[in-house]
Amino acid sequence: MGTDFDAIFKAYDVRGIVPDQFDADGAKAIGGAFARFVGARGEQSILVGRDMRPDGEGMAAAFGDGAMEHGIDVVDVGLCATDMMYYGSGHLGIPGAVLTASHNPAGYNGIKMCLAYAAPIGADGGLSEIKQMAISGPDPAGRRGTRTQLDILDGYVAHVRSFVDIDALEPLRVVADTANGMGGLVVPPVFAGLPFELDHMYPELDGTFPNHPADPIVPENCEDLAERVLLMSADIGLAFDGDADRVFLVDENARAVSGSLTTAMVARSILAREPGAVIVHNLICSKTVPEVIAEGNGTAVRTRVGHSFIKQVMLETGAAFGGEHSGHYYFRDNFGADSGLIAALVVLEALSGHSAGLADLVSELDRYATSGEINTKVEDPAAVINRVAGAFAGADQDRMDGLTVDLGDWWFNLRPSNTEPLLRLNLEAGTQDDVDLRVQEVLALFA
Fold it and tell me: pLDDT by residue (tens digit) across 274-303?
Protein backbone atom coordinates (compact mmCIF):
# COMPACT_ATOMS: atom_id res chain seq x y z
CA MET A 1 0.00 0.00 0.00
CA GLY A 2 0.97 3.65 -0.05
CA THR A 3 1.26 6.18 -2.82
CA ASP A 4 3.19 5.42 -6.01
CA PHE A 5 4.02 8.94 -7.16
CA ASP A 6 5.56 7.74 -10.43
CA ALA A 7 2.34 5.90 -11.30
CA ILE A 8 -0.17 8.60 -10.37
CA PHE A 9 1.42 11.76 -11.79
CA LYS A 10 0.15 12.03 -15.38
CA ALA A 11 0.75 14.62 -18.08
CA TYR A 12 -1.89 17.04 -16.79
CA ASP A 13 -3.09 15.81 -13.41
CA VAL A 14 -2.85 13.10 -10.74
CA ARG A 15 -4.83 9.84 -10.91
CA GLY A 16 -4.55 6.39 -9.38
CA ILE A 17 -6.26 3.45 -7.73
CA VAL A 18 -7.13 3.93 -4.05
CA PRO A 19 -5.44 2.76 -1.87
CA ASP A 20 -3.04 0.61 -3.93
CA GLN A 21 -1.48 3.54 -5.80
CA PHE A 22 -2.88 6.59 -4.02
CA ASP A 23 -3.89 7.02 -0.40
CA ALA A 24 -4.61 9.77 2.14
CA ASP A 25 -0.95 10.07 3.09
CA GLY A 26 -0.15 10.65 -0.58
CA ALA A 27 -2.89 13.26 -0.82
CA LYS A 28 -1.43 15.03 2.22
CA ALA A 29 2.06 14.95 0.71
CA ILE A 30 0.79 16.40 -2.56
CA GLY A 31 -1.20 19.04 -0.68
CA GLY A 32 1.98 20.07 1.11
CA ALA A 33 3.93 20.13 -2.14
CA PHE A 34 1.23 22.20 -3.86
CA ALA A 35 1.31 24.66 -0.95
CA ARG A 36 5.09 24.99 -1.21
CA PHE A 37 4.85 25.43 -4.98
CA VAL A 38 2.25 28.21 -4.87
CA GLY A 39 3.65 29.70 -1.67
CA ALA A 40 6.97 30.27 -3.45
CA ARG A 41 4.95 32.37 -5.91
CA GLY A 42 3.56 34.57 -3.15
CA GLU A 43 0.19 32.84 -2.66
CA GLN A 44 -1.28 32.66 0.84
CA SER A 45 -4.43 30.60 0.28
CA ILE A 46 -5.85 27.89 -2.00
CA LEU A 47 -9.29 26.60 -2.87
CA VAL A 48 -9.95 22.88 -2.34
CA GLY A 49 -12.95 20.90 -3.58
CA ARG A 50 -13.84 17.26 -4.23
CA ASP A 51 -16.07 15.06 -6.32
CA MET A 52 -18.54 12.40 -5.16
CA ARG A 53 -16.16 9.43 -4.85
CA PRO A 54 -16.54 7.52 -1.56
CA ASP A 55 -13.02 8.36 -0.32
CA GLY A 56 -13.17 11.95 -1.58
CA GLU A 57 -13.97 13.64 1.72
CA GLY A 58 -11.03 12.02 3.52
CA MET A 59 -8.64 12.61 0.61
CA ALA A 60 -9.63 16.28 0.33
CA ALA A 61 -9.22 16.74 4.07
CA ALA A 62 -5.75 15.17 3.92
CA PHE A 63 -4.76 17.36 0.95
CA GLY A 64 -5.90 20.43 2.90
CA ASP A 65 -4.02 19.32 6.03
CA GLY A 66 -0.83 19.04 3.98
CA ALA A 67 -1.33 22.56 2.65
CA MET A 68 -2.06 24.02 6.08
CA GLU A 69 1.06 22.42 7.54
CA HIS A 70 2.99 24.58 5.09
CA GLY A 71 1.34 27.83 6.13
CA ILE A 72 -1.30 28.04 3.40
CA ASP A 73 -4.93 28.84 4.23
CA VAL A 74 -7.53 26.48 2.73
CA VAL A 75 -10.87 27.65 1.35
CA ASP A 76 -12.93 24.45 1.38
CA VAL A 77 -15.79 24.50 -1.16
CA GLY A 78 -16.85 20.90 -0.54
CA LEU A 79 -18.50 18.98 -3.37
CA CYS A 80 -17.81 20.61 -6.71
CA ALA A 81 -17.47 19.96 -10.42
CA THR A 82 -14.04 20.63 -11.89
CA ASP A 83 -15.22 23.67 -13.83
CA MET A 84 -16.78 24.94 -10.60
CA MET A 85 -13.30 24.77 -9.04
CA TYR A 86 -11.94 26.75 -12.00
CA TYR A 87 -14.67 29.34 -11.46
CA GLY A 88 -13.77 29.57 -7.78
CA SER A 89 -10.08 29.96 -8.56
CA GLY A 90 -10.82 32.66 -11.11
CA HIS A 91 -13.41 34.47 -9.00
CA LEU A 92 -11.27 34.48 -5.85
CA GLY A 93 -7.95 34.91 -7.67
CA ILE A 94 -6.28 32.02 -5.83
CA PRO A 95 -4.86 28.61 -6.84
CA GLY A 96 -7.23 25.67 -6.71
CA ALA A 97 -7.37 21.90 -6.48
CA VAL A 98 -10.19 19.40 -6.82
CA LEU A 99 -9.92 15.80 -5.67
CA THR A 100 -11.34 13.94 -8.67
CA ALA A 101 -10.50 11.11 -11.03
CA SER A 102 -12.71 12.61 -13.75
CA HIS A 103 -14.01 9.86 -16.07
CA ASN A 104 -12.02 7.03 -14.46
CA PRO A 105 -14.04 4.16 -13.00
CA ALA A 106 -14.89 3.46 -9.37
CA GLY A 107 -11.84 2.77 -7.24
CA TYR A 108 -9.83 5.68 -8.65
CA ASN A 109 -9.21 9.13 -7.27
CA GLY A 110 -6.93 11.96 -8.25
CA ILE A 111 -6.26 15.69 -8.23
CA LYS A 112 -6.62 18.47 -10.77
CA MET A 113 -4.72 21.62 -9.83
CA CYS A 114 -4.40 25.14 -11.19
CA LEU A 115 -2.67 28.39 -10.37
CA ALA A 116 -4.56 31.57 -9.48
CA TYR A 117 -7.25 32.61 -11.97
CA ALA A 118 -7.43 29.00 -13.22
CA ALA A 119 -4.04 29.22 -14.95
CA PRO A 120 -2.91 25.74 -16.01
CA ILE A 121 -0.37 23.49 -14.33
CA GLY A 122 1.06 20.80 -16.60
CA ALA A 123 4.09 18.52 -16.69
CA ASP A 124 6.21 21.38 -18.07
CA GLY A 125 4.53 24.03 -15.95
CA GLY A 126 4.96 22.80 -12.40
CA LEU A 127 3.47 19.32 -12.11
CA SER A 128 6.85 17.60 -12.16
CA GLU A 129 8.11 20.09 -9.57
CA ILE A 130 5.13 19.34 -7.30
CA LYS A 131 5.78 15.62 -7.73
CA GLN A 132 9.40 15.94 -6.64
CA MET A 133 8.46 18.02 -3.59
CA ALA A 134 5.81 15.44 -2.63
CA ILE A 135 8.42 12.67 -2.87
CA SER A 136 11.00 14.62 -0.87
CA GLY A 137 8.59 15.06 2.02
CA PRO A 138 7.23 17.95 4.07
CA ASP A 139 8.99 21.18 4.93
CA PRO A 140 6.52 22.68 7.43
CA ALA A 141 6.16 26.42 7.89
CA GLY A 142 6.23 28.13 11.27
CA ARG A 143 2.59 29.17 10.93
CA ARG A 144 -0.19 26.65 10.39
CA GLY A 145 -2.80 27.67 7.85
CA THR A 146 -6.51 27.89 8.55
CA ARG A 147 -9.48 26.14 6.93
CA THR A 148 -12.72 27.96 6.11
CA GLN A 149 -15.82 26.76 4.28
CA LEU A 150 -17.29 28.64 1.32
CA ASP A 151 -20.34 27.91 -0.84
CA ILE A 152 -19.65 29.01 -4.43
CA LEU A 153 -22.50 27.17 -6.19
CA ASP A 154 -24.80 30.18 -6.64
CA GLY A 155 -21.99 32.32 -8.01
CA TYR A 156 -20.96 29.54 -10.37
CA VAL A 157 -24.51 29.11 -11.67
CA ALA A 158 -24.83 32.84 -12.40
CA HIS A 159 -21.45 32.79 -14.13
CA VAL A 160 -22.36 29.84 -16.39
CA ARG A 161 -25.68 31.42 -17.37
CA SER A 162 -23.94 34.71 -18.25
CA PHE A 163 -22.57 33.14 -21.45
CA VAL A 164 -25.96 33.13 -23.17
CA ASP A 165 -28.87 35.49 -23.69
CA ILE A 166 -31.45 33.95 -21.39
CA ASP A 167 -34.26 35.80 -23.20
CA ALA A 168 -33.23 34.18 -26.50
CA LEU A 169 -33.73 30.64 -25.18
CA GLU A 170 -36.80 28.81 -26.43
CA PRO A 171 -38.68 25.79 -25.06
CA LEU A 172 -36.72 22.63 -25.74
CA ARG A 173 -36.91 19.10 -24.37
CA VAL A 174 -33.48 18.19 -22.96
CA VAL A 175 -32.25 14.88 -21.58
CA ALA A 176 -29.12 15.09 -19.42
CA ASP A 177 -27.22 11.99 -18.33
CA THR A 178 -24.87 12.95 -15.51
CA ALA A 179 -23.93 9.30 -14.85
CA ASN A 180 -24.01 9.68 -11.03
CA GLY A 181 -21.21 12.22 -11.38
CA MET A 182 -20.88 15.86 -10.37
CA GLY A 183 -23.30 16.98 -13.06
CA GLY A 184 -25.92 15.86 -10.58
CA LEU A 185 -24.94 18.81 -8.40
CA VAL A 186 -24.59 21.52 -11.04
CA VAL A 187 -27.02 20.72 -13.87
CA PRO A 188 -30.29 21.23 -11.92
CA PRO A 189 -29.52 24.75 -10.61
CA VAL A 190 -28.12 25.90 -13.96
CA PHE A 191 -31.29 24.73 -15.76
CA ALA A 192 -33.70 25.96 -13.05
CA GLY A 193 -36.07 28.57 -14.44
CA LEU A 194 -34.87 28.22 -18.04
CA PRO A 195 -37.49 27.38 -20.69
CA PHE A 196 -36.34 23.79 -21.00
CA GLU A 197 -38.08 20.58 -20.04
CA LEU A 198 -35.21 18.75 -18.33
CA ASP A 199 -35.23 14.98 -18.03
CA HIS A 200 -32.31 14.18 -15.72
CA MET A 201 -30.86 10.65 -15.86
CA TYR A 202 -28.82 9.19 -12.99
CA PRO A 203 -28.73 12.43 -10.96
CA GLU A 204 -27.68 10.82 -7.67
CA LEU A 205 -24.07 11.52 -6.65
CA ASP A 206 -22.55 8.06 -6.40
CA GLY A 207 -18.88 7.43 -7.03
CA THR A 208 -19.45 3.70 -7.44
CA PHE A 209 -21.21 4.50 -10.76
CA PRO A 210 -24.01 1.92 -10.42
CA ASN A 211 -25.53 2.59 -13.86
CA HIS A 212 -22.63 3.00 -16.28
CA PRO A 213 -19.14 4.54 -16.31
CA ALA A 214 -19.05 8.35 -16.41
CA ASP A 215 -16.96 8.38 -19.58
CA PRO A 216 -19.14 9.59 -22.47
CA ILE A 217 -16.39 9.47 -25.09
CA VAL A 218 -17.00 5.68 -25.07
CA PRO A 219 -20.09 5.13 -27.28
CA GLU A 220 -21.56 2.35 -25.10
CA ASN A 221 -21.81 4.77 -22.18
CA CYS A 222 -24.19 6.97 -24.19
CA GLU A 223 -26.57 4.17 -25.17
CA ASP A 224 -28.95 4.82 -22.25
CA LEU A 225 -29.05 8.52 -23.17
CA ALA A 226 -29.70 7.78 -26.85
CA GLU A 227 -32.61 5.48 -25.97
CA ARG A 228 -34.05 8.06 -23.59
CA VAL A 229 -33.84 10.83 -26.21
CA LEU A 230 -35.96 8.72 -28.57
CA LEU A 231 -38.37 7.68 -25.83
CA MET A 232 -38.93 11.28 -24.70
CA SER A 233 -38.94 12.73 -28.23
CA ALA A 234 -36.28 15.08 -26.92
CA ASP A 235 -34.57 17.80 -28.92
CA ILE A 236 -31.11 17.02 -27.55
CA GLY A 237 -29.22 14.74 -25.17
CA LEU A 238 -26.30 15.88 -23.00
CA ALA A 239 -23.79 13.38 -21.58
CA PHE A 240 -21.44 14.64 -18.88
CA ASP A 241 -18.35 12.93 -17.54
CA GLY A 242 -17.63 12.23 -13.87
CA ASP A 243 -16.36 15.67 -12.90
CA ALA A 244 -18.73 17.41 -15.36
CA ASP A 245 -16.09 19.44 -17.19
CA ARG A 246 -16.83 17.63 -20.49
CA VAL A 247 -20.07 17.23 -22.41
CA PHE A 248 -21.04 15.15 -25.44
CA LEU A 249 -24.18 15.71 -27.50
CA VAL A 250 -26.79 13.35 -28.92
CA ASP A 251 -29.21 14.70 -31.54
CA GLU A 252 -32.96 14.09 -31.72
CA ASN A 253 -32.36 10.97 -33.80
CA ALA A 254 -30.11 9.48 -31.07
CA ARG A 255 -27.01 10.10 -33.19
CA ALA A 256 -23.85 11.15 -31.36
CA VAL A 257 -22.32 14.51 -32.28
CA SER A 258 -18.53 14.50 -32.25
CA GLY A 259 -16.46 16.88 -30.19
CA SER A 260 -15.16 18.39 -33.42
CA LEU A 261 -18.65 19.26 -34.66
CA THR A 262 -19.61 20.64 -31.26
CA THR A 263 -16.44 22.77 -31.38
CA ALA A 264 -17.51 24.04 -34.81
CA MET A 265 -21.03 24.87 -33.56
CA VAL A 266 -19.77 26.75 -30.52
CA ALA A 267 -17.12 28.54 -32.60
CA ARG A 268 -19.83 29.72 -35.01
CA SER A 269 -21.87 31.12 -32.11
CA ILE A 270 -18.85 32.86 -30.60
CA LEU A 271 -17.94 34.43 -33.95
CA ALA A 272 -21.50 35.68 -34.47
CA ARG A 273 -21.14 37.51 -31.17
CA GLU A 274 -17.50 38.51 -31.59
CA PRO A 275 -16.59 38.88 -35.29
CA GLY A 276 -12.93 38.32 -36.10
CA ALA A 277 -12.20 36.47 -32.85
CA VAL A 278 -9.33 34.03 -32.51
CA ILE A 279 -10.52 30.43 -32.04
CA VAL A 280 -8.15 27.68 -30.91
CA HIS A 281 -8.54 24.01 -31.80
CA ASN A 282 -6.31 21.01 -31.25
CA LEU A 283 -4.72 19.23 -34.17
CA ILE A 284 -6.94 16.15 -34.13
CA CYS A 285 -10.10 18.20 -34.65
CA SER A 286 -11.85 17.76 -37.99
CA LYS A 287 -10.94 20.09 -40.87
CA THR A 288 -14.51 21.31 -40.48
CA VAL A 289 -13.39 23.36 -37.48
CA PRO A 290 -10.87 25.68 -39.21
CA GLU A 291 -13.23 25.86 -42.22
CA VAL A 292 -16.10 27.12 -40.06
CA ILE A 293 -13.81 29.58 -38.31
CA ALA A 294 -12.66 30.96 -41.67
CA GLU A 295 -16.26 31.15 -42.90
CA GLY A 296 -17.06 33.22 -39.81
CA ASN A 297 -14.11 35.55 -40.53
CA GLY A 298 -12.33 34.32 -37.43
CA THR A 299 -8.70 33.35 -37.02
CA ALA A 300 -8.04 29.63 -36.42
CA VAL A 301 -5.03 28.67 -34.31
CA ARG A 302 -3.98 25.01 -34.17
CA THR A 303 -2.45 23.54 -30.99
CA ARG A 304 -1.15 20.35 -29.45
CA VAL A 305 -3.58 18.05 -27.67
CA GLY A 306 -4.01 18.76 -23.94
CA HIS A 307 -5.57 21.40 -21.74
CA SER A 308 -2.34 23.05 -20.60
CA PHE A 309 -1.30 23.66 -24.22
CA ILE A 310 -4.71 25.01 -25.25
CA LYS A 311 -4.93 27.31 -22.23
CA GLN A 312 -1.45 28.68 -22.82
CA VAL A 313 -2.12 29.37 -26.51
CA MET A 314 -5.45 31.00 -25.65
CA LEU A 315 -3.66 33.27 -23.20
CA GLU A 316 -0.97 34.17 -25.74
CA THR A 317 -3.42 34.87 -28.56
CA GLY A 318 -6.36 36.31 -26.63
CA ALA A 319 -8.56 33.60 -28.15
CA ALA A 320 -12.25 33.81 -27.29
CA PHE A 321 -12.79 30.04 -27.43
CA GLY A 322 -10.93 26.78 -27.75
CA GLY A 323 -12.18 23.28 -28.49
CA GLU A 324 -10.85 19.74 -28.33
CA HIS A 325 -12.19 16.68 -30.11
CA SER A 326 -12.30 14.98 -26.67
CA GLY A 327 -15.20 17.16 -25.49
CA HIS A 328 -13.29 19.90 -23.65
CA TYR A 329 -14.44 23.44 -24.51
CA TYR A 330 -12.53 26.46 -23.22
CA PHE A 331 -13.76 30.04 -22.91
CA ARG A 332 -11.68 33.18 -22.50
CA ASP A 333 -14.35 34.68 -20.23
CA ASN A 334 -14.25 31.53 -18.09
CA PHE A 335 -10.67 32.36 -17.12
CA GLY A 336 -9.55 30.37 -20.17
CA ALA A 337 -10.80 27.18 -18.52
CA ASP A 338 -13.07 24.46 -19.88
CA SER A 339 -16.72 23.95 -19.00
CA GLY A 340 -19.14 21.37 -20.32
CA LEU A 341 -22.12 23.28 -19.01
CA ILE A 342 -21.18 26.55 -20.68
CA ALA A 343 -20.71 24.72 -23.98
CA ALA A 344 -24.09 23.00 -23.52
CA LEU A 345 -25.87 26.31 -22.95
CA VAL A 346 -24.22 27.90 -26.00
CA VAL A 347 -25.42 24.97 -28.13
CA LEU A 348 -28.92 25.23 -26.64
CA GLU A 349 -28.96 28.94 -27.48
CA ALA A 350 -27.97 28.15 -31.09
CA LEU A 351 -30.63 25.43 -31.26
CA SER A 352 -33.22 27.88 -29.89
CA GLY A 353 -32.59 30.19 -32.84
CA HIS A 354 -32.66 27.40 -35.43
CA SER A 355 -35.84 26.56 -37.30
CA ALA A 356 -35.08 22.83 -37.52
CA GLY A 357 -33.55 20.32 -35.10
CA LEU A 358 -30.02 19.62 -33.93
CA ALA A 359 -29.50 17.02 -36.67
CA ASP A 360 -30.15 19.71 -39.26
CA LEU A 361 -27.87 22.17 -37.45
CA VAL A 362 -25.08 19.59 -37.45
CA SER A 363 -25.62 18.28 -40.99
CA GLU A 364 -24.00 21.26 -42.69
CA LEU A 365 -20.92 20.77 -40.50
CA ASP A 366 -20.69 17.00 -40.98
CA ARG A 367 -18.43 17.24 -44.04
CA TYR A 368 -15.94 14.40 -43.55
CA ALA A 369 -15.70 10.81 -42.34
CA THR A 370 -13.37 9.99 -39.45
CA SER A 371 -11.70 6.94 -37.99
CA GLY A 372 -12.06 7.85 -34.35
CA GLU A 373 -8.97 7.32 -32.23
CA ILE A 374 -7.31 3.96 -32.97
CA ASN A 375 -4.81 2.82 -30.33
CA THR A 376 -2.12 0.31 -31.29
CA LYS A 377 0.58 -1.18 -29.05
CA VAL A 378 4.05 -0.95 -30.57
CA GLU A 379 7.49 -1.66 -29.14
CA ASP A 380 9.13 1.54 -30.35
CA PRO A 381 6.64 4.37 -31.02
CA ALA A 382 9.32 6.83 -32.17
CA ALA A 383 10.69 4.38 -34.73
CA VAL A 384 7.22 3.70 -36.13
CA ILE A 385 6.47 7.41 -36.42
CA ASN A 386 9.71 7.94 -38.35
CA ARG A 387 8.90 5.01 -40.64
CA VAL A 388 5.44 6.40 -41.39
CA ALA A 389 6.88 9.87 -41.98
CA GLY A 390 9.32 8.42 -44.49
CA ALA A 391 6.55 6.60 -46.33
CA PHE A 392 4.73 9.91 -46.84
CA ALA A 393 7.82 12.04 -47.43
CA GLY A 394 6.20 13.88 -50.34
CA ALA A 395 3.17 15.10 -48.34
CA ASP A 396 2.77 18.12 -46.06
CA GLN A 397 3.98 17.09 -42.60
CA ASP A 398 4.59 18.61 -39.20
CA ARG A 399 5.75 17.37 -35.79
CA MET A 400 3.79 19.74 -33.55
CA ASP A 401 2.35 16.78 -31.65
CA GLY A 402 3.48 13.39 -32.92
CA LEU A 403 3.23 13.33 -36.72
CA THR A 404 0.55 15.02 -38.81
CA VAL A 405 0.44 14.21 -42.54
CA ASP A 406 -1.92 16.09 -44.88
CA LEU A 407 -2.47 14.66 -48.37
CA GLY A 408 -5.24 17.08 -49.36
CA ASP A 409 -8.27 14.82 -49.61
CA TRP A 410 -7.26 12.91 -46.47
CA TRP A 411 -5.03 13.48 -43.47
CA PHE A 412 -3.96 11.78 -40.27
CA ASN A 413 -2.22 12.40 -36.96
CA LEU A 414 -0.12 9.78 -35.17
CA ARG A 415 0.74 10.53 -31.53
CA PRO A 416 2.50 8.47 -28.88
CA SER A 417 0.78 7.94 -25.54
CA ASN A 418 2.29 9.80 -22.58
CA THR A 419 2.12 6.73 -20.35
CA GLU A 420 2.04 3.55 -22.47
CA PRO A 421 3.81 2.07 -25.54
CA LEU A 422 0.84 3.06 -27.69
CA LEU A 423 0.36 5.02 -30.88
CA ARG A 424 -2.89 6.93 -31.32
CA LEU A 425 -4.10 7.28 -34.92
CA ASN A 426 -6.76 9.80 -35.96
CA LEU A 427 -7.59 9.90 -39.67
CA GLU A 428 -10.10 11.87 -41.73
CA ALA A 429 -11.19 11.53 -45.37
CA GLY A 430 -14.12 12.29 -47.64
CA THR A 431 -16.05 9.03 -47.17
CA GLN A 432 -16.10 6.14 -44.73
CA ASP A 433 -14.79 3.80 -47.44
CA ASP A 434 -11.84 6.14 -47.95
CA VAL A 435 -11.24 6.22 -44.21
CA ASP A 436 -11.24 2.44 -43.93
CA LEU A 437 -8.84 2.11 -46.87
CA ARG A 438 -6.42 4.75 -45.61
CA VAL A 439 -6.44 3.42 -42.04
CA GLN A 440 -5.26 0.05 -43.32
CA GLU A 441 -2.62 1.79 -45.42
CA VAL A 442 -1.19 3.59 -42.40
CA LEU A 443 -1.46 0.63 -39.98
CA ALA A 444 0.37 -1.59 -42.47
CA LEU A 445 3.43 0.60 -41.91
CA PHE A 446 3.51 -0.23 -38.18
CA ALA A 447 4.87 -3.74 -38.65
Answer: 999 999 999 999 999 999 999 999 999 999
